[in-house]
Write a structure and sequence with these properties.
The chain has one domain (about 5-195): 3-methyladenine DNA Glycosylase, Chain A. About 10% of the residues lie in helices and about 30% in strands. It contains three helices and nine strands. Strands 1, 2, 3, 4, 5, 6, 7, 8 and 9 form a nine-stranded antiparallel β-sheet that branches. A hairpin with a 2-residue loop joins strand 1 and strand 2 (about 45-55). The longest helix has 8 residues, at about 120-125. The chain is globular.
Length: about 210
């Protein structure tokens, strides 16, 4: 370990690369309860993943890579699974886990996390005190954890950006994705997953 990551708690063991080789819909569910970790010069911040959305690439009108659209932004989606796909939407950076086999551009958006370590740092970054609103949205959690566009293409299996084992959700809900009303039939696909009843989920919805 280098001095740059000297504050990394050795109890955080990143998940192995083959964890991310699962089919995208399975991975979107398997990520729930896992610990998302980011190390910066300010310190370490982490949270349990409590909400995800799967985007199924070429056949999914809601995906950036629909129709195999290949741009500078989406290029990382065509790479191997387990890498970070970050992009900016409405001035907010969002983070996705690249999934699926190479050349099949699929990804999973991390929509919400439950704060675990670095709560005071998260509050400072978000300029707020209410812990339930620090990370209950995809743009909120990246700012709170310190995830930026510099993380584009980074593997989640090594510092400074990692996903490790966390908790096992007692119940998982599934439903329509959010904010994709202009994507035709894709807006109704039930490819959003969340930990049932968790207060840090961005929006509570009934199963369906």
């Amino acid at each position: 370990m280098t001095d740059k990551h000297a504050d990394w708690d050795l109890s955080y063991d990143p998940l192995p690369k083959d964890f991310f080789h699962q089919p995208t819909l399975d991975l979107a569910e398997a990520l729930l309860g896992c610990l998302l970790i980011k190390i910066t010069k300010e310190g370490l911040a982490s949270g349990y993943i409590v909400e995800t959305e799967a985007y199924m690439g070429p056949e999914d009108r809601a995906a950036h890579s629909f129709g195999n659209r290949r741009t500078k932004r989406t290029e990382i989606m065509f790479s191997k699974s387990g890498l970070a796909y970050t992009y900016v939407m409405h001035t907010h950076c969002l983070v996705n886990v690249v999934s699926g086999p190479e050349e099949k551009p699929e990804a999973i958006l991390i929509r919400a996390v439950e704060p675990v370590v670095g709560l005071e740092l998260m509050k400072k970054r978000r300029n707020m005190e209410d812990p339930k609103h620090l990370t209950n949205g995809p743009g909120k959690l990246t700012k709170a954890l310190g995830i930026t566009m510099e993380d584009y293409g980074r593997p989640f299996s090594e510092p400074p950006l990692m996903i490790s084992k966390g908790t096992i959700p007692q119940e998982i809900s599934r439903g329509k994705r959010i904010g994709i009303n202009n994507s035709g039939e894709a807006r109704d696909y039930p490819w959003r997953y969340w930990v049932t009843g968790n207060p840090y989920v961005s929006r509570q919805r009934k199963r369906g």
